[in-house]
Fold this protein.
Amino acid sequence: MTELQAIERVGSTIKIVDQTALPATLEYRELATLEAVIEAIRTLRVRGAPAIGIAAAYGLAQAAELSPAPSLKKLTVIADRLKAARPTAVNLAWAVDRCLGTVQSNAQDIVDRLWQEAEAIHDEDRQMCSAIGRHGCELIPGKARILTHCNTGALATGGIGTALGVIVTAHHDGRVAMVYADETRPLLQGARLTMWELKVLGIPARLITDSTAGMLMGAGRVDLVIVGADRIARNGDTANKIGTYALAVLAAHHQVPFYVAAPSSTFDERLADGSGIPIEERAASEITEGFGARTAPSETDVYAPAFDVTPGSLITAFVTEQGIRPGGRKN
């Protein structure tokens, strides 16, 4: 499992694990055009803040290679299209802007420099995941019962994962007794992806409905919660998969530590607080007929935010590749 690569460069194409096919099939897909990259990001074939940043960086390099005369003006338009594919995850815009920055002052060898920068971003993420795992492991007590939400493992990053990377590292250190994985409504990333990774890794785990988390905490069966993040404002307000805010409230009520694991690129210092984080809304069909069978009357009005914002005051600490940052929660 440690060898799984959710995304990689193969010549001038981008090879991804199609996460919409899991857990039934481990299916790889090659993205040979800009349109294919954007479609894969929008439809969650590739997902997870670090992974979509890597995909977008590769996508920009690929588009430059396929362009008959790549120019900064053309690349800026392409970059804007990539950034609009999923606006909440700051890693996407960060990665694209970082790649653009390498060619703004020098118009020579644009294609090579974009590929090199995209590969550097990918390699750095791999190293950051390992560092996050090491630092986060310090927070995990022996025989820990850990609750996590959505998917933050190898499928979502360039390495072993962020929050799940901490769990993997702690498991190797003999500290994990049980992982409770929220199913993560409505697209079931916890059920389809996190449970798949945990089973392959041989980590003891149980799948729960999102609404079971409070019951488990109330019964004293959860020692800590650890999740990932898509964007973190300067005051610690954190955007993550919908349902994270409710978990943080429950954890605070039950005095269960609540940790957020994310690379430093997920921190958006331009935003003072979470009110400025754009929240992506998904199609109503993901709730009313998410996996084929209709579960609500036709023409049902739906509100489907993909993310919510957890106040920094509810977060015990942040785990980054640089170490542990204290959160705003005092108990």
Notes: Residues 132-326 form a domain with the Rossmann fold fold (CATH 3.40.50.10470). Residues 238 and 323 are 18 Å apart (CA to CA).
